[in-house]
Specification:
By secondary structure, this protein is of the alpha/beta class. It contains 14 helices and 18 strands. Strands 3-5-4-12-13-14-11-16-15 form a nine-stranded mixed beta sheet. Bound molecules: flavin-adenine dinucleotide (FAD).
């Protein structure tokens, strides 16, 4: 089977998963990361059943990665701890980010006899991308070329400027997040443990009375750690961090003061913090209808940074990778036309769902105004729009990106009007390793 040379910029969840997916689809992958591959910060991330299922299909091992299944999500009054709502976890899992990063990095090198491992290059900072020629320029003056370039360089990426032809930086939001990791062993006799961390697998969302803040808690790292995220999105909390900054300092004292606004027993958790991580100002990107141009596709936060109220950023980074892995599988021909129509199909499939998810992610799940989804109505068919929390979780958790891509690929191939379907547009057929133009750039 002919294969593509694929170059990926950025080694976060989006870049690493795309690398594994494209390598599994039979392509030759090189991934360039600005820093080290072991630099992930010690917080946690929750992934839905379809993301986890897709990662498992790539060899992801839930035991090795110490995944913790989320059995249910309980919404509590943060002051009284009264139960307001409870929803099933639906097969979601939570992971300690360093565990996830380690597992994904490991999988880039796991190959069968027919595959080549991904080439991972650390401390390689990309400065510019030429999407038409398929060339990536590095800060040290060197360059490299490929058939397909995947920009996965995070929220501050400039790759979408290249796609859209205008500057479109991510925008700072009013929402901040303080992430806290608590070792469960230290909590045994703590009142907090009796309330929040007594049943492994229970996730809780405690709403501050009056709104504007809530505390999200769930397990990770083989149920050894409890992950807490304090979200503040009320105007009173904005000055805590300068508007133009992504991160701000936070101290145990700051966390303690904020926790005092919740049930007193929750505040006692501050005595057991493993680490006080920086305060994050969350950034967002506006919904768009395309993420591709020429040989370039932009994925993950670089393409569609969103607020993390619904925990969908990493899930969508994995869906991006799954879509690319599916749409670029079984290629009988490698040509510019072939890459082009597959990327167009990628845009058609990904843009509506990503855009709707970005909009729905603007408010916490307990504040959704179901009847006011006018913006979402412009994107999704009426029947698909979630009408309550149960529906929303179902919409987020049950969508099967791989099946969607397979069906759309079949429709596309089966349409005789499409004269650039696979195997038909082979005007510049070539084997893996790039065009003469690409090879020249590689030598330069
Ligand atoms: C508080 C919080 C909680 C969250 N919780 C969840 C959750 O529960 N579930 C969920 O799905 N999502 C969650 N998210 C969102 C999720 O973390 C992100 O969407 C996801 O990590 C984005 O991954 P990425 O690979 O696109 O970007 P990143 O992780 O930012 O990776 C980008 C990589 O590119 C590299 N890079 C940057 N510039 C260059 C360059 N010029 N050259 C080469 N490399 C470069 C960077 O060093 C980095 O390694 C949360 C986010 C926050 C802030």
């Amino acid at each position: 089977m002919p294969c593509l040379s694929v170059m990926i910029v950025g080694g976060g969840i989006a870049g690493l998963t795309s690398a594994i997916a494209l390598r599994r689809a039979g392509h030759k992958v090189t991934l360039y990361e600005k820093y080290s591959f072991s630099g992930e910060i010690g917080a946690a991330v929750a992934l839905g059943p379809r993301s986890v299922g897709y990662l498992q299909s790539l060899g992801f091992d839930l035991d090795r990665v110490k995944g913790c299944q989320s059995l249910n999500i309980q919404i509590l009054d943060g002051r009284t701890l009264e139960l307001l709502d409870s929803q099933k976890g639906g097969g979601s899992y939570a992971f300690f980010r360093p565990d996830l990063q380690q597992e994904l990095t490991y999988l880039t090198g796991q190959v069968d006899s027919t595959e080549q491992p991904c080439r991972l290059v650390e401390f390689a900072a990309v400065s510019r991308i030429d999407p038409e020629k398929g060339i990536v320029y590095f800060e040290d003056g060197s360059q490299d070329a490929a058939d397909l370039i995947i920009a996965a360089d995070g929220v501050h990426s400039k790759a979408m400027d290249v796609v859209l032809g205008v500057a479109c930086p991510a925008k700072p939001s009013d929402t901040t997040a303080t992430r806290i990791i608590v070792p469960v062993a230290k909590l045994k006799e703590n009142p907090f443990a009796r309330i929040m961390a007594s049943v492994p697998g229970h996730s809780t969302l405690s709403i501050r009375p009056g709104g504007g803040a809530y505390l999200l808690g769930y397990w990770c790292h083989g149920f050894e750690y409890f992950n807490l995220v304090l979200y503040r999105y009320g105007a009173e909390d904005v000055p805590v961090i300068a508007m133009d900054k992504m991160r701000g300092e936070t101290t145990r004292e700051d966390v303690k003061v904020a926790m005092n606004q919740f049930h007193p027993d929750l505040g006692t958790v501050c005595e057991h913090l493993l680490d006080v991580l920086p305060l994050w100002r969350l950034h967002t990107r506006d919904p768009v209808s395309r993420y591709t141009r020429g040989r370039l596709v932009v994925v993950g936060d670089a393409a569609h940074a969103m607020l993390s109220h619904l925990g969908q950023g990493a899930n969508n980074a994995i869906f991006d990778a799954a879509a690319l892995g599916t749409l670029f599988a079984n290629m009988s021909v490698v040509s510019a036309e072939e890459i082009s129509w597959r990327l167009r199909l990628y845009d058609e499939i990904r843009a509506p769902r990503i855009s709707a998810t970005q909009i729905l992610s603007e408010v916490p799940m307990f504040e959704q105004k179901w009847q006011k989804n006018d913006e979402v109505k412009k994107i999704l068919p009426e029947t698909e729009i979630p009408q309550n929390l149960k529906d929303l979780l179902k919409w987020l958790q049950e969508y099967d990106i791989v099946q969607d891509c397979r069906e759309r690929l079949q429709e596309h191939i089966g349409n005789p009007a499409n004269n650039s379907a696979p195997g038909m547009g082979n005007s510049s057929r070539r084997e893996c390793g790039g065009t003469a133009e690409h090879n020249q750039a590689n030598e330069g």
